[in-house]
């Protein structure tokens, strides 16, 4: 991957992390307001958790790669 590509990919993974935080806030809000029962959110929370594992794994790999090249 080119240097520009690596920086751009890192930027996109940082945006994905921000989106995960937004999704978590919406989940908390609808639960707090009682708009959706917790059992109805199980699939959404599971999908969010799976995405989070992927995004944070990518961010760890990118950080390790950056540290190795420094």
Please give a structural write-up.
There is one protein chain. This protein has one domain. The chain is 83% helix and 0% strand. 0% of the residues are buried. The chain is mainly alpha-helical. The chain contains two helices and no strands. The longest helix is centred in the N-terminal third of the chain and has 30 residues, at 3-32. The model has no long low-confidence stretch (mean pLDDT 90). Helix 1 packs antiparallel against helix 2 (42-69). The protein has helices at residues 3-32, 42-69.
Strands, total number:
0
Q: Assign a percent range to the helix content.
A: over 70%
Please report which band the strand proportion falls in: under 5%, 5-15%, 15-25%, 25-35%, 35-45% or over 45%: under 5%
Low-pLDDT parts are: none
Mean pLDDT: 90
SS summary, helix count: 2
Radius of gyration: 16 Å
Shape verdict: elongated
Query: What count of structural domains?
Result: 1
Q: Order of helices and strands, N to C?
A: HH
Features:
mainly alpha, 70 residues, 0% strand
